[in-house]
Design a protein that fits this description.
Number of domains: 1
Order of helices and strands: HEEEEEEEE
Structural class: mainly beta
Length: 115
């Protein structure tokens, strides 16, 4: 059996790799977000991933909406729910774009943003 030696990377190579990783921070922004259609903006220079979980009491819809307009209208994530429970949507937001989450019949449980 041939043994394999793991590669040795320089500090420059490691720094270059870490800057290419798509997300470098995970932020729980639940306390500062609302699922009532309030518009937010990705002010970073990186694509952001938005993950929203809600608790439902019955039927309804949860939508993730984002585009370059200050009042975004492009639905990029949708979850229709027929019963009580916890549901989730996730979607990407391009740098500089606006985004919001709208719902019917739900209460915000968690909102995480990866940047």
């Amino acid at each position: 059996m041939i043994g394999l030696t793991p590669p040795i990377y320089s500090a420059e190579e490691l720094n270059a790799f870490s800057s290419s990783v798509p997300f470098s921070a995970q932020n729980d922004v639940t306390a500062s977000r609302a699922i009532d259609g309030t518009v937010y903006r990705n002010t970073s220079k990186k694509t952001m991933y938005v993950s929203v979980s809600v608790t439902t009491a019955g039927a309804g819809t949860l939508d993730g909406i984002t585009d370059s307009a200050a009042a975004p209208t492009t639905t990029v994530a949708e979850h229709d729910h027929a019963a009580a429970g916890t549901i989730h949507i996730g979607f990407m937001v391009l740098p500089g774009n606006y985004y919001k989450v709208t719902n019917t019949g739900a209460v915000l449980a968690e909102w995480i943003e990866l940047v």
